Automatic annotation (TrEMBL):
This is NADP-dependent 3-hydroxy acid dehydrogenase YdfG. Belongs to the short-chain dehydrogenases/reductases (SDR) family. The lineage of its organism: Bacteria, Pseudomonadati, Pseudomonadota, Betaproteobacteria, Nitrosomonadales.
Amino acid sequence: MNKGVCVVVGVGPGNGAAIASQFSANGYQVALCARNQRKLNDIAATIKGSRPFGYDVRDPEAAPKVFAQIRQQLGSIDVLVYNAGAGAFANIDDATLADFQSAWEVNCRGLFLAVKEVLPDMRAAGAGHIIAIGATASIKGGAHFVPFASAKAGQRGLVQSLARYLWPENIHVSYVILDGIVNLPRTRQLMPDKLDEFFMEPFRIAESVYFLTQQDKQAWTFELDLRPYAEKW
């Protein structure tokens, strides 16, 4: 059964691919968006009902073109999952203006432009879901997280404003805070002594993201914190 179209922005081999797979398994056509077209094509080959779309969220002129292609090939958009995230981990002495600007472009401006593109479809349908994937840095700025924390805090504020404005239109906007290290080959290599339960499994994160789209509007979630039970918080 075709439930509609889900766009996942920021698709890599971890959370992005897992979220796309979850929506595909539940009957959605899925648009996979990321900068690296070759890797995107490889991921799309493993997910039924998905199509890859090269998309650099740092390019403000790319959004209208990419979303027009998605709409033309798959139809109107019902769900947007914004998983794109970037930012240098540096203190104020070491961070550069380029670091600061780049983090803002990906986390804030990119989300702003993507939402602008999907809103007409959701308003025409009278319903929709917008989910942004955030981080603990959005509510807790570490000393060495100046570019990343400031951008994520801005992103969280943007999403909260969107939720307060769009919920009355039956468009569910929510923010998922990931507090932990995602289980990826590179993170396991960096932390070889950590036990399995220390890491967050992408497919478990994807299950929770999909759950947000199944809630009744009388009990919608705005902010969802996800962390492994072993995480200190």
